[in-house]
Write a structure and sequence with these properties.
homodimer; 258 residues; 4-stranded antiparallel β-sheet; 3-stranded antiparallel β-sheet; 12 helices; DNA-binding
Chain lengths: 258, 258
DNA sequence: AGCACACTGTTCGTCACCGCACGTAGACCG
DNA sequence: CGGTCTACGTGCGGTGACGAACAGTGTGCT
């Protein structure tokens, strides 16, 4: 096997729609139909996928990227309502029938995603097969995140919410080091940057994280889990419950990438 | 026409599935199929329709009642994530595939609703007709409420949130007098009872509402709209947009009730 | 009528978080 | 290598909401 082919194989392996849990869970037949319609795209940090109220063109199935659904108030304050990683898809409004949302979607962690034209996603959804059920269950998981955010924003401290957010982001990440500024985290949680500085300082002093300029490394998952509020667990368990049957397909397509 | 028959006609008119916007919007054929499966139930104030995590038996289409979806934290604090009146249905998880939710549903304003067995709702949903699209669009409206609640809880004052809540409740009510204690309102907004007393006092001094023991009467809708945050408008417009095609059916069934 | 209870109004100390302002230190670039 | 920009750390006054405690008052029950 030549080095070139190996590189090509590696590249194929590095980026595969199967890295997205929803796509990976599709029956081989459905997956094969969708595959030629999927387009790999790079998602740079900060890119805005949807502006509130604007027509949505594509749905995005993240593989390594993480997106954040959040709402920006008239006065410019913002708050994340849910996050989307490789466990889900950005753009549920496309098949829910609304076509637009009042919230915006931005890339919170740079990476890749497979995008699918809205019309095609809707078409696939309307076939009513496995994919429909899958997307609906995922949408319900999204609703859990949203309502949990509402309660969490109301009752839990900045430090607790930071822990929750770090854990959820970590679950969607490959490494345990997150590349992001405190400013960005602050805008996600809808608090002042200084609030994050302080909370992160506490967590660092406790030895749970290590914070450098533009980087946050998680040292003790257990520590964060002890310091967070119940919301993390609720969201995580609900995702797991609703998407319990989501397992990687073991078919020829996957095999050829191994 | 005897008095008795008139009474009976009145009773029929008083309670009709058509009072629920979703049911009223169904094509005559779909409506006729559903009608014998619907069961009118009284919903007393405070009744808990769903407990978190429990199997849901029925979906509820409110006519005069209003329900509140809210989350209760481990420490007992609570927060409403969305409200449901005659514009919607309680129990979307039934057709979304989850069967349970982590939030609970309680009756916030006493009244009536038509309930439908979960299995039957799911069946109807899976026919994939008009009802499916309608329910999906309603679900998206629900998501808007949830994410708006998250942002609103984070950034707006108690008084603003009280105004938003009063207006949304008023839109779902028949009269402009709401029958509920400040204690109850407080638990909906997830704040202390004293906070509501104070905010309500301000609004009363402004002449926007009139507050008696267990009753809140809205005197100036315009005043409340000026005092509330943007969130009210966003939610209302989104409901209107998504359910724009929801109009009362003008068919024989409706006519026979006139 | 009278009692009991639940709802409302008010007060006071406390605290988490805000907004602002300023100092410092990595990182990138010419 | 020195300059500049962006990110991080800190301090300070202000404040909205909290928690607890208590005093009136409408409502329903006996």
């Amino acid at each position: 096997m030549s080095a070139q082919i190996e590189t090509r194989e590696k590249s194929l392996q590095r980026h595969s729609p199967n890295q997205n849990h929803l796509l990976a869970a599709l029956p081989a037949e459905d997956f094969a139909r969708l595959l030629p319609l999927l387009e790999l795209v790079a998602m740079p940090l900060g890119e805005m996928l949807y502006e509130p109220g604007q027509q949505m063109r594509h749905a995005y199935f993240p593989t390594t990227a993480i997106a954040s659904l959040h709402y920006v108030t008239e006065s410019g304050a913002s708050a994340e309502t849910a996050g989307v990683g490789n466990e889900g898809v950005v753009g549920v409004a496309l098949f829910m029938g609304g076509d637009t949302t009042s919230s915006s979607a931005v890339v919170q962690t740079a990476g890749h995603a497979y995008r699918l034209e809205g019309r095609l996603l809707k078409q696939e959804f309307n076939r009513g097969g496995f994919m429909q059920g899958l997307l609906l269950r995922y949408t319900q998981a999204l609703m859990t995140q949203m309502s949990q955010s509402a309660a969490c924003n109301r009752h839990h401290s900045v430090e607790q919410r930071l822990c929750r957010w770090l854990l959820l982001t970590l679950d969607r990440s490959q490494s345990n080091e997150l590349v992001m500024t405190q400013e960005l985290v602050a805008s996600m949680l809808g608090v002042r940057r200084e609030g994050i500085t302080e909370a992160a300082g506490n967590l660092q002093r406790s030895g749970f994280i290590s914070s450098r300029r533009g980087h946050i490394a998680v040292l003790s998952r257990v520590g964060l889990e002890a310091a967070t509020c119940e919301c993390y667990d609720v969201v995580k368990k609900e995702i797991r419950r609703l998407l319990a049957d989501v397992q990687h397909r073991q078919d020829g397509i996957t095999a050829s990438h191994r």
